[in-house]
Design goal:
The chain is elongated. It folds into three domains: 46 residues; 104 residues, 2-Layer Sandwich (Uridine Diphospho-n-acetylenolpyruvylglucosamine Reductase, domain 3); 117 residues, 2-Layer Sandwich (Enolase-like, domain 1), CATH 3.30.390.50. The protein is of the alpha+beta class. The chain has a five-stranded antiparallel β-sheet with strand order 4-5-8-6-7, with helices on one face. α9 runs antiparallel to α10 and α10 packs across α11.
């Protein structure tokens, strides 16, 4: 009878050796999803504790990329000055991800691998075109986050974010059942540049309107290439609502989400362009 054993590797090479063992591997880092959901532990194979693999933690700038080890905690994402300057959407999402105790244990790799529809870190990573460094028994390779599918025995070892200079503006907002410590019922990440006041290179990704994050190309087209104005924002608002109608046409939450997403969209655009959401621009667009 096969029994579950525990391994505590100290290096990626040691993990690769475990992958050649042939038994099923079950990776665990922060373990917060298992604790909260009360899941049963696996019955056989190897439970691989990633907590002692130093190569899996840390944030660094490597060439034209920011490299984040997959076992880096959500708390560290929220506090890192490089991310705050280069991709504030990810810092903001991390800062709103659960309670302090959860952020101190939960990891970015675990958040990606769990792939919950309401995961807060996924929309900022999608909007930034993140790539994942994946390791399995065949070796290592890079996968676009939008193409990633969790699979037994595959380990996310790092996340690579493009680091252009100058960095684009980005932002994140979420809506839950209460103001603090809430699971997202809707979240939104954006990334953009401005040239002479005109919005360009706009990317928008929403969470919790489907099983995976959704790229909102209609909303991007509605505001992209325009100057910020009440008319442009009206077109943007309609496009956001239409995106929700398309994504969840038969769900009861469609009625309120098609309105709520407009508020989130205005909040993020206002923050990225240095305005208050109460600025007359947004009042005129409502």
């Amino acid at each position: 009878m096969n029994m579950l054993t525990v391994a505590r590797p100290r290096s990626l090479d040691a993990i690769s050796a475990l992958m050649s063992d042939g038994r099923p591997l079950h990776f665990i880092a922060g373990g917060t999803d298992m604790l909260i959901a009360g899941r049963l532990r696996p019955k056989d194979g190897i439970l691989v504790d990633l907590g002692q693999v130093a190569e899996l933690s840390g944030i660094s700038v490597v060439g034209q990329h920011i490299r984040i080890g997959a076992a880096t905690t959500v708390a560290r994402l929220a506090e890192d000055p490089v991310l705050a300057a280069r991709l504030p959407a990810l810092s903001q999402a991390a800062a709103e991800c659960g309670a302090v105790q959860i952020r101190n244990r939960a990891t970015i790799g675990g958040n990606i691998a769990e792939a919950a529809p309401a995961a807060d870190l996924l929309p900022p990573l999608w909007v930034a075109d993140a790539r994942l460094e994946i390791r399995d028994h065949d070796g290592s390779r890079l996968v676009a986050i939008a193409d990633y599918i969790a699979s037994p025995g595959r380990l996310i070892t790092a996340i690579l974010l493009p680091d252009p200079d100058p960095a684009p503006k980005s932002g994140f907002a979420k809506l839950g059942s209460r103001r603090e410590l809430t699971i997202s019922k809707l979240n939104l990440a954006m990334l953009m540049r401005q040239e002479g006041g005109r919005i360009v290179d706009l990317r928008i990704v929403a969470g919790a309107i489907g099983p995976r994050p959704q790229r909102l190309k209609l909303a991007e087209a509605a505001l992209g290439g325009r100057f910020l104005s009440p008319k442009a924002l009206q077109l943007f608002a309609k496009a956001l609502s239409d995106e929700v109608d398309t994504a969840i046409p038969t769900r009861s939450s469609r009625v309120w989400k098609r309105r709520a997403i407009v508020g989130l969209g205005y909040d993020v655009i206002a923050a990225m362009t240095g305005h208050s959401p109460r600025h007359p621009l947004f009042a005129g667009a409502a």
